[in-house]
Amino acid sequence: MSKYLLSLPVFWKVRVGEHNLKLTEGPEKTIQVSEVHFHPWYHAYDKDIALLKLEKEMEFNDYVRAICLPDEDAGYLGMRCIATGWGKIDFDKRGSNVLREVEIQVLDNNVCHSAYYPTYKIPIKGWHLCAGILEGGKGTCQGDSGGPLQCQVNGKYYVAGITSFGSGCAKEGYPDIYTRVSYFADWVEEIMSRPPAGRK
């Protein structure tokens, strides 16, 4: 599907309060998307970020909560953070029906650049965030893309990264690559401050 079609809100709904994709447990809600904003320099491996505006406000409860946005200068190097998603548990398996989480460490971007550039010719830049376990066995996989990497600072969780790409599933020597949300703090604030589409 083209980026143009992906930018049309009619194609998108957001499911909140979801846990088990096979069961209706009560707190799930589906909300229509009213606006889609891709970063102007969006590419599969670069600036892999978009914002969705919902037609109505979410109702927060024990299962649906907000997460903090990081400041532009936020750094998480060395921290152990949590990635979540319904992706595959292993490369040759299906996606999970139940939301899963994994604790991984934020690494220096040079670690990922040294792994990905020689093999795939993908340079790791400042808008990327490198996180994982060098020994492998823990990380994100196909189907987890777009999910959050959450880091806890002073009792609050921040969305430090957005799952972007990797090499297989938790492959040894290849930590996963996330979009570094703090790099886009100004862009996020600018989009959020705009009046709704059609209004001035």
General description of the model:
It comes from Nephila pilipes (Giant wood spider). GO terms for molecular function: serine-type endopeptidase activity. Keywords: Disulfide bond, Hydrolase, Protease, Serine protease. InterPro entries: Peptidase_S1_PA, Peptidase_S1_PA_chymotrypsin, Peptidase_S1A, Serine_Proteases_S1, Trypsin_dom, TRYPSIN_SER. One of its GO terms (biological process) is proteolysis. The chain has three helices and nine strands. The chain is α+β, with helices and mostly antiparallel strands and 200 residues long. It has helices at 3-6, 109-120, 185-193, and strands spanning 13-16, 29-38, 50-54, 80-85, 100-107, 128-132, 148-153, 156-165, 176-180. The longest helix has 12 residues, at 109-120. The two termini are 31 Å apart. The radius of gyration is 17 Å and the shape is globular. The strands form two sheets. A six-stranded antiparallel barrel has the order 4-5-6-9-8-7. A three-stranded antiparallel β-sheet has the order 1-2-3, with no helix packed on it.
Tally of helical runs: 3
Main sheet properties: 6 strands, antiparallel, barrel
What is the oligomeric state here? single chain
Please tell me what the overall shape is.
globular
**Strand percentage:** 25-35%
Number of strands: 9
Element-level helix/strand string: HEEEEEHEEEEH
Question: Kindly state the mean pLDDT as a whole number?
Answer: 94
Compute the CA-based radius of gyration: 17 Å
Q: Indicate the structural class.
A: alpha+beta
Stretches where pLDDT is under 50 for at least 5 consecutive residues are: none
Distance between the termini: 31 Å
Helix content: 10-25%
Strand order of the largest sheet: 4-5-6-9-8-7
Protein name: Clotting factor B
GO biological process, one term: proteolysis
GO cellular component, one term: extracellular space
InterPro entries: Peptidase_S1_PA, Peptidase_S1_PA_chymotrypsin, Peptidase_S1A, Serine_Proteases_S1, Trypsin_dom, TRYPSIN_SER
